[in-house]
Design goal:
single chain; alpha+beta; two-stranded antiparallel ribbon; 12 helices
């Protein structure tokens, strides 16, 4: 397997970046101790948002057509407006769009919400090129779609959708994949896997009790207008992701140059973004203190086991430095036991006070590291 891995150590101040259904910051038991946790879904969402909002400024040049949209509002936000531009009235455009998407539903059951009949019951991740093909499909089959569809016609049209939903060479869809429960054959296997971020040490949740004062209260009323509490913790997190470069290339229909740009953009976006939960209250905008990459041919390896025994705080050493040294020791131990990738490229940016980081050539900053990653990816993708 041709792969690119990213290993990050990131210390965040008191925060609640990713909370559960009760509002508490997510956590998990690991190595027998409670750890801070940020879900993989939340991290991937942050990367996707960064792709969309900052792609020109931060992550290189991409076309709008190279990023997909994930939505339940495909009918009203994408299909109907374009069909109306092609001469359909709104009512026909809505009915044809709904009828077409209903073809994605196998078996009985509604594919649209009862209270919002133009919104699908689940999110559909679609590339702009796929949406264009979907519109062409509706236009070309409008006569058949306008009438009553028998079982055979439904099956035939449904099969034709296989050629419409082909991934559309969208970078984010290629990286994170697509699942259509009703039509698994139209799914796209993700090229990227992201682990739940875990603290390298044990944590205990804390509570911030707050009050808010009514500005218009008379002086004799000194009580709070409202009060409550917010849970939080601070943590040094280990974050890990791996990109299957072969799968990425396959999902992008063999476009090596786009796969290279996509993998590099992922590296940068993954390193520089975090979920945004409660940031107005905590402003935990803490960049990583350590970023390492490994690229080559072989099997991926998540090094969270470096922290199976929690790092213990010391007055004379920061947790980030102790964590980086534990990561280096585990990296070396795994290399010794299972061997490195073959061939292998690796490197790191280290802002911790760690010593003895032998496994990695060190670079000054992310820009330099990215140049080294690009060199590795060009060799692996044969660009």
């Amino acid at each position: 397997m041709k792969l690119m891995e990213v290993h990050i150590l990131q210390t965040v101040v008191p925060s609640n970046l990713n909370r559960d259904d009760t509002g508490s910051p997510k956590d998990a038991l690991f190595g027998g101790f409670r750890r801070a946790r940020i879900s993989s879904q939340a991290q991937k969402r942050a990367v996707r948002v960064a792709f969309r909002d900052f792609r020109e400024k931060l992550f290189g040049q991409f076309l709008d057509a190279e990023f997909a949209v994930r939505t339940q509002k495909l009918v009203n936000e994408r299909l109907v407006p374009e069909l109306m531009k092609r001469g359909f009235n709104q009512n026909d455009a809505e009915q044809l769009s709904v009828k077409t998407l209903q073809l994605l539903k196998k078996g009985e059951g509604a594919f649209f919400k009862k209270d919002k009949p133009h919104e699908t019951t689940y999110l559909i991740f679609a590339a702009p090129k796929e949406i264009e093909k979907l519109i062409d499909f509706i236009v070309n089959n409008s006569a058949r779609l306008s009438g009553e569809l028998d079982k055979r016609t439904k099956q035939k049209l449904g099969n034709e959708l296989n050629e419409v939903l082909d991934g559309g060479k969208a970078v984010d869809l290629a990286l994170f994949g697509r699942m259509l429960a009703d039509r698994p054959e139209l799914g796209v296997d993700a090229a990227c896997q992201v682990a739940h971020a875990l603290s390298t040490h044990k944590v205990d949740r804390e509570f911030d009790f707050y009050t808010a004062v009514d500005d218009l209260n008379p002086k004799e009323e000194t009580g709070a207008g409202m009060m409550g509490d917010v849970e939080f913790y601070s943590a040094t997190l280990y974050r890990y992701a791996v990109v299957d470069l072969g799968k990425l290339l396959e999902n992008l229909q063999g476009d090596k140059e786009l796969a290279l740009r996509g993998a590099l953009a992922f590296l940068e976006a993954f390193a520089l973004t975090l979920p945004s939960g409660k940031q107005n209250s905590f402003a935990a905008h803490n960049p990583p203190l350590f970023v390492a990459f490994r690229a080559g041919v072989g099997l991926p390896r998540n090094l969270a086991t470096a922290f199976e025994r929690p790092i213990r705080p010391r007055e004379d050493r920061p947790l980030s430095a102790l964590s980086a040294e534990a990561l280096a020791q585990t990296w070396t131990r795994f290399d010794r036991a299972y061997g490195p990738l073959n061939p292998e490229w690796k490197g790191a940016v280290n802002l911790t006070e760690a010593k003895d980081l032998d496994p990695w050539p060190l670079f000054e900053g992310l820009r330099d590291l990215k140049t080294e990653v690009e060199r590795a990816l060009k060799a692996l993708l044969e660009v």
